Automatic annotation (TrEMBL):
It comes from Geothermobacter hydrogeniphilus. This is GGDEF domain-containing protein. It comes from the Bacteria. Residues 24-278 form the EAL domain.
């Protein structure tokens, strides 16, 4: 009966609540010790030149190898890290780890690999972020040109004057600055012009609809055109299909990132990609 069903649904709902709060408690206690226990991992996803298929750089994407819950994506723990203030130590760990890895690739004869690190809005507000970053580079013996920082449009627009100042200092060091998830926030062209940025990354929510949705296709096309007129490099994220790739190449998007070429992968796998390049079947098929 409906009543029995209702009762059943209620039970299921209740159990889900218990599960969520229990999971949250496990995560909260765990995250405090995750750094000491060395449970964070960095996966790397290649960015690819849209016309040649060459790997141009990598993006570092954080994972948490949780002892009970398995490999967790950032969505499961970044906001928790921000609430607890642990984002500062985690952010510093990511920067130092990435610099260390870039050094290792250079020592392996793989040249100067450039890696993009995502910055939380909290980090951008942090005292001495610039000092921390230059120290990490110096300690690893890595040149600032090897580091790229990705900040979202929304984070930058929360405090544009402050962001402009910090981003300018970072860029003066030689670090590349990217605006991530572009198109989902609301930055004006006049603001964009003031930022010392190098790259716009078109948000995957537009990219993934270019074949189906005329509005998203028009927005994507407009972002590419606008970015180019401002002399910025344009990267499309979340590219999964040949059709999306074809559209982006047709509109002269510079770089492509997405499962079509590679998922984010562990360090051994990406080292192999750096050594041998990607399997370019998909790019050739689109030519
Ligand atoms: P993001 O920087 O915009 O990264 C892109 C996200 O899209 C990544 O999710 C990536 O794995 C995923 N992705 C890449 N290609 C494809 C594709 O073809 N299709 C689909 N559906 N997804 C694709 P991920 O790794 O779960 O990271 C989510 C977000 O977490 C990142 O978004 C970034 O904002 C944040 N994040 C990651 N690492 C860090 C970090 O070290 N520090 C901070 N503060 N945030 C981080
Ligand atoms: Mg990013
Ligand atoms: Mg993004
Ligand atoms: Mg994102």
């Amino acid at each position: 009966s409906a009543k029995a069903q209702g009762r059943n649904n209620f039970k299921v709902y209740n159990r889900a609540m218990d599960f969520d709060s229990e999971r949250r408690m496990i995560l909260e206690t765990g995250i405090r010790r995750a750094l000491e226990r060395d449970e964070f991992r960095i996966h790397y996803q290649p960015k690819v030149d849209a016309s040649t298929g060459e790997v141009t750089s990598l993006e570092a994407l954080l994972r948490w190898q949780h002892p009970d819950l398995g490999l967790l994506p950032p969505a499961d723990f970044i906001s928790l890290a921000e609430e607890t203030g642990l984002i500062f130590s985690i952010g510093e760990w990511v920067l130092r780890q990435v610099c260390h890895q870039v050094r290792e690739w250079a020592d392996l004869g793989l040249g100067d690999v450039r890696v993009a690190v995502n910055l939380s809005g909290y980090q951008l507000q942090q005292q001495n972020l610039v000092g921390q970053i230059s120290q990490a580079l110096e300690d690893a013996g890595v040149s600032p040109e090897c580091l790229e920082l990705e900040v979202t449009e929304t984070v930058v627009m929360q405090n544009p004057d402050f962001a402009v100042a910090i981003l300018r200092q970072l860029k003066e060091l030689g670090i590349c600055i990217s605006i991530d998830d572009f198109g989902t926030g609301y930055s004006s062209l006049s603001h964009l012009r003031r930022f010392s940025i190098n790259t716009l990354k078109i948000d995957k929510s537009f990219v993934q609809e270019v074949e189906r949705n005329a509005t998203d296709a028009a927005i994507t096309q407009a972002i590419i055109a606008m970015g180019k007129s401002l002399d910025l490099k344009i990267v499309a994220e979340g590219v999964e299909t040949e059709g999306q790739l074809e559209f982006l190449r047709g509109h002269d998007c510079h770089e492509i990132q997405g499962y079509l070429f590679s998922q984010p992968v562990a360090v051994d796998k990406v080292t192999e990609i750096l050594r041998n390049g990607l399997d370019l079947k998909s790019l050739q098929a689109a030519t």
